[in-house]
Fold this protein.
Amino acid sequence: MPAEEHAMAPPTLRQRRRAAATQEILDAAELHIAEQGPAALSLRAVARSLGMTVQALYHYFPSRDALVTALVTKAYDDLADAVQAAIETTPDDPSLPRLVVAAEGYRRWAIAHPERFQLLYGTPLRDYAAPVDGPTTQATRRMSSIFEREMFDEFAPEQLAAADTPALSPSLRAYLEQLPHYGFGNLPPASTALLLSAWGHLHGLVVLEVFGHTSFLGDHQAEIFRMAMRTLIEDIHRRIPAHTSKPHQKNPDGDVENPWPAPSPQ
């Protein structure tokens, strides 16, 4: 059989049954978290809710950590899907920056799934450690790439390198230079600092709301959040200089070329 046909072969009946059972276990575990909270996650309780023995569940998830890793990965993926869907389905509006749209998609998912959000960003589960560079890491990188793209995609590398931020210590600058990036590419340290600061602001507001600390605002929480995100973007744009310093060059036809990369299609 040619390699192409072998690669496209449909899953076997056994594989389909295993995938269906795995999904059923994940659904039951998510329901258990929604009802009891992440800290109460128990393989025995999940198995009992499905009419399984714990030993049978071990055929799909050999340990509690394996189940938690799958749940965390799925939660990150679902959150990233919600953010991306918000970007893709919101009608274009020049007055509403795409980063605001992405942030609001993030907020809506967190509010709709508070227990799963807590699994990601609440008190760490006792005795659980995510696998190094495993599926949870890959899932967080996807989320990072979305916000990095929406925050910086319209700027040229030279602009990002000239971002106006408080002076970074040599040790922090060196550390930020070696951090991996998954959206725009190798961000200059100043822009990485901006990204981390913006993320802390955005995420912090969502955490406060999800855990009930801004309930005194009532129905005005969404408006406050949008205002904060607009202010955040205005501050970022104020700190990144306009691209006016690089000299124009002529192409072989004698026409002046734009030396700055065009923004990616949105």
